[in-house]
Amino acid sequence: MRNVIVLILLFCFHFSAVARPIKVIFDTDMESDVDDAGALAMLHGFANRGDAEILATISSSLNPWSAPTIDVINTYFGRPDIPIGNVKMLGVYRNSKYAKTISEKFPQDIGLGENAPNANLVYRKVLSEQTDNSVVIVTVSYLTNLSNLLNTEADKYSPLAGMELVAKKVKHLVCMGGRYPLEQDPGKWGNFKPDPKAVRHVANYWPTKIIFTTGGDFANAIPTGKILFETETLHPNPVREAYRIFLKGWNRNYHHSADLIATYVAVKGHEPYFKLRKQGYFHIFKDGTHMWRINPNNPNHHIIGEFTEGIDPLEVASDFNRYLIQSNDK
């Protein structure tokens, strides 16, 4: 009898120790750059391994081909029913080299972004259904949707206003957007340029921890995507096709990993590759100029923009590519 009890206790301990998949909501523009497609493919790779559960995929772009391209990638990786939301009316519109072609060439059933439900409603519904403090949101896009979410009021999905709903359900936010010069040469970069008002709102009022990940030279040091062209698959690959279209004329078949870094951090954390800086805060001016200031300290603002000492960026690229390869297994 004693041995049976010991076995039961060991089983319970093992069961409790098994890592549960990270619940992720992925917010993307899926238009101006192609690393959005690579990041979503990587996220599906994590889901295939059991490391992540993709709760929703949200478009922050008014480009009508953004949401259907998201749907194409979800469908390709065998998850066609993942909820997709889209920003409505007031938002950012930017052209895309690849989105329209991908949307028309590969299976998807949204049609155009205008047919997708309002991003606010998708966020509120999905968050309301989750356990407290369990959801990681990763945005590799404009912060329009997240700003709008904070402004939402109680509805049929939850009696909580947006700020309270986020505080209750979200574990933390991972945000890719700028380059964050430390106390010098502030500038306007990346996803923060088109809607600086939303960035200021989220940076100042988001109620959970935010991990900012940087682009620029840091992301350029991790070249990914080449492996998509070297791997044979049984089916035409929309992510490979998006990279091919986007990189046409660049005389190369690899790209920076800005959005992939954020996605990796959302699921796996910053270790072992990246340093996490906890001192300081993200500051953005009204015109969109932004920087990382060392003082005063905001305990909710963390930043990743450096490699751990001794890490070879090409080693990181190799690992990222490995996730892309796994995500392409059919």
Q: Give the biggest beta sheet.
A: 8 strands, mixed
Q: What share of the residues does DSSP label as strand, in percent? A: 15-25%
Proportion in helices = 25-40%
CATH class: Alpha Beta
Question: In angstroms, what separates the terminal alpha carbons?
Answer: 46 Å
Number of domains: 1
Mean pLDDT: 91
Low-confidence stretches: 9-17
Number of helices, where a helix is a run of at least 4 consecutive DSSP H or I residues: 13
Shape type: globular
Q: Which class do the helix and strand fractions yield?
A: alpha/beta
Order of helices and strands: HEHEHEHHEHHEHEHHHHEEEEH
- Fourth CATH level, the homologous superfamily: Ribonucleoside hydrolase-like
CATH architecture group name: Alpha-Beta Complex
Strand order, sheet with most strands? 3-2-1-4-5-6-10-7
Radius of gyration: 20 Å
Q: Report the strand count.
A: 10
